[in-house]
Amino acid sequence: MADDSAGLGREPARPADPLRPIAPTIGTVAAGLTLAVLFVPGTGTDATVQSLPLATLGRGAAALALVVFVLTRRVDAPERAVGAIAILAGLIVASADLLTLFGELNVWRQPAGLPLATAGAIPVVGMGTAMVLSLSDRRVFAVTKAISLMTAVGGLGFFVSIVGGNLLVLPFVAILDTTALSVTYPLLTVGVALATFAFVAAMFRWLGVDRSWLDLSVPSLRGIGLVVAGLLVLILILNVLTALISELGLPAVESGVEQQARQSDTPEFLLLLIPLSFLAIAPSEELLYRGLVQKYLYDTLGKVGAVVAASAIFAAIHFGQYASPDPIQMAVSLSVVFVLSLVLGYSYARSENLVIPILIHGTYNALTFFAMYARVTGMVGTG
Asked: What is the pTM of this model?
């Protein structure tokens, strides 16, 4: 006979509380940190600047995002509607924050000079997008992990390439006993490329991939057509941006390389960078940002998402090269780099051959360096 006394005196088991999706939780943390950042004064900020409508707009949007994320965790709110509100709020925060670049509104500029509110708004928009698309927790974790990992890889690769490149060049500079840019800059370019190749090889080993991961082959006629089309698109976009800059009376875009060439007695080093564009610069950068970062993101983001994410990382890495006291000039320069990266990323995704973006990138850089040389030496006007 069965013993029924075992269950006596026990309350019936309660169903476990359903787990809340992770997106609102991450969104709550991101929106909270963003709101806190918006109340931290930047260097030289006074109380008058803090009360400006632009600051109020950004703080209000961040607070709205925080509220809707918290409510979603507490009550059964419609996810897609909440996600859409969070996306809108995040975009408002980023827009208000970036608009401070175009005036004297340094309210959110931290001592490091970084747009921290925008950095916080990015995950707010990301989690809002996850809610609109009804992504599972597993999917949110996978996407967040992949983007975070590849952002770290891109940043670490840049750091390693610069440090490694300088370490490789120092012995040659000591032997040659010169600091002339005509010697040091080409040497540094080669050193940076070699350090990048070594870094990517180390990352391949760490990720457990072999040479079969690389998509390298002789371009077909269709591939050559893609190279030509990519270059034409880039030249067209660059001309449109140049015309727009001139029409609006904005300052001309000038990279750090061109600035150094203007200050140098030997701007001829720019001509040496033309062959190095094909032999060092383009192969190393494309191997890292397209062959590693973009391809790694395919499984999580799909090809379109991977191209956009890798392009954003690529543009962010070039921040230092185009850093300028004039924020408009810097914003335009980074926009050009982002568009360049989109074209390179698309050409790789379409062709599945890393040689295609290498040729587009190398040719574009070679033309750019020649144009710099022409401007610096007075062969053409600077506009």
From this structure: 0.77
